[in-house]
Amino acid sequence: MPELPEVETIRNQLNKVLRGKIIKEIEVLREKSFSGDPTAMRGWKIQSIERKSKILEVLFENQPDIVIVHLKMTGQLIYVNGEKRILGGHPSPDWVNQLPSKHTRVIWNFDDGTKLFFNDMRVFGWMKIINFKEYEKYTRKTVPDITEKGFTTKYLFDILNRSEKPIKLVLLDQDKIGGLGNIYVNDALYLAKIRPDRKSDSLERDEGISLHKAICTIIKRGIKYGGASASNYVQVSGLGGTYQDHFLVYKKEGEKCKRCGGVIKKIKLGGRGTFYCSDCQK
Ligand SMILES: [Zn+2]
């Protein structure tokens, strides 16, 4: 599943190519994947691509409506300009194969002949036309994401203090903090020397401070490396991010901890693979 750094990476890349593009036609191949009237978008000119947590926001010049996009489990965005492709999201052979593919759900055709493909194998992702003011009202009430100013040490410490659940599950709860996913939460807890299965409210203040710092560090690192695309296929084609080469504990069970020499263990928490060093994470 694309996590925040992967979504931020595709946002940055699409911003470089989509600004100023004028929509000629939107083809919706699977109704479930697009909500709103696609014909209304004819002639709309893209102003910029923004992001809130894992939701991409496409803003248009002089339009009260925006389009929001969630890639969910298997969504991909692939911009095609002749031979050139800009892409992100779930890595799969569709990244380099003929498009549209059988997973293509929506195609944005621009008036210069370039195209943006929204592929989604499992069809959990979506594109929605929504009034910007209504959307803003809604997002103002939502929790901060980990790259926003509202995600402070105090905010983190307060939500952790209110739960007895394992700390990792609280950190992954998108109703409490936006944008933290399984890869980066494992590495952040390692960096902060905190066991993922520890009771959330057992955290001391100084641990809360170092955890906040660790989350910010790991997310910045994820964005710096263009996110992770742990797939053999992607490495062969040279596409996608490289954070997978910098995992600290994620998918490293059985390997030695670089900090203390202990062995990295794997357990399941909330059904998700959880990795930690049983020696230096307390
Ligand atoms: Zn260790």
Provide keyphrases for this structure.
282 residues; alpha+beta; N-terminal domain of MutM-like DNA repair proteins; Helicase, Ruva Protein, domain 3; 2 domains; five-stranded antiparallel sheet; five-stranded mixed sheet; 7 helices; globular; binds zinc ion
Topology at a glance:
Elements (H helix, E strand, L loop, with lengths): L3 H15 L4 E6 L5 E2 L10 E7 L2 E6 L4 E6 L4 E7 L2 E6 L14 E7 L4 E6 L5 E6 H10 L11 H9 L5 H6 L9 H10 L13 H20 L7 H6 L26 E6 L2 E6 L5
Parallel strand pairs: 2-10
Antiparallel strand pairs: 1-8, 3-4, 4-5, 5-10, 6-7, 6-9, 8-9, 11-12
Order of secondary-structure elements: HEEEEEEEEEEHHHHHHEE
The proportion of residues in beta strands is 25-35%
Largest sheet: 5 strands, antiparallel
Which small-molecule ligands are present, each listed once? zinc ion
Total domain modules: 2
Structural class: alpha+beta
Shape, per Cα inertia axes: globular
Unreliable segments of 5+ consecutive residues = none
By CATH reckoning, the class of the largest domain would read: Alpha Beta
Mean pLDDT: 93
| End-to-end CA span | 28 Å
- In CATH, the topology of the largest domain is named N-terminal domain of MutM-like DNA repair proteins
Structure, described:
The protein is an alpha+beta fold. It folds into two domains: 4-141, N-terminal domain of MutM-like DNA repair proteins (Alpha-Beta Barrel), CATH 3.20.190; 153-277, Helicase, Ruva Protein, domain 3, CATH 1.10.8. Helix content is 27%, strand content 25%. The protein has helices at residues 4-18, 132-141, 153-161, 167-172, 182-191, 205-224, 232-237, and strands at 23-28, 34-35, 46-52, 55-60, 65-70, 75-81, 84-89, 104-110, 115-120, 126-131, 264-269, 272-277. The strands form three sheets. Strands 1-8-9-6-7 form a five-stranded antiparallel β-sheet, covered by helices on one side. It has a five-stranded mixed β-sheet with strand order 2-10-5-4-3. A hairpin with a 2-residue loop joins β6 (75-81) and β7 (84-89). The longest helix has 20 residues, at 205-224. The protein is globular, with a radius of gyration of 20 Å. The mean pLDDT is 93. The site of zinc ion has 7 residues, from loops.
